[in-house]
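Sample A.
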Amino acid sequence: MARIDVLTNVTSDYIKAAANAPTKLQEKNEDFGAVFKAAMGLVNETNDMETLAKSEEIKFALGYSENTHDLAAAMTKAQLALQYTVAVRDRAMTAYKEIMQMQV
């Protein structure tokens, strides 16, 4: 938080409180932060599913597991999660490009 009394020698508590109060722009950043956290959670979940699928594949290849159902289920979950993540990314990039082309 910037101190305005250093620049203008204003020491009014009211002005300091107003300067430190959250603005609408800062509130929007908090909303974006929530969306960003959700997106990162999606990426982490997709990564976990990919790791689990690779682990099941290695177990099956080494002969530790004979259950092909677990292998197929893990690989399908990982594939669907990756497709969903890519679709969300593509939509976010499209929205970003549209916003950048807007004229103010």
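Sample B, a different protein:
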Amino acid sequence: MIYITQLIYVNANEESVFHQFEDIAIPIIAKYQGQLLLRIRPEENSFVEVNIDKPYEIHLIRFESEDSLQSFMHDPERKKFLHLKEQSIKSAVLIKGEAF
């Protein structure tokens, strides 16, 4: 199993465009033996200590294998809508790991 954690930083006033992309991309995860485990939009009072910019959303996603993850990333339907991602996301931090 491969686990992906993403800290997502959205451009100001582009939240609705980000949600349009997510509405397309998230259902595609299952097509590649993946599962969205957590999708968190933290409130200001959720942070106990912060030494980085506060993300708009945090995602935890699980894939069966690296091949499944790469297939998702190259999915033709998802790629058609990458312009929405590029327009709305200022930056993202992707942390990849495995359960032990």
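Observation for Sample B: The domain at 13-97 is CATH 3.30.70.100 (Alpha-Beta Plaits).
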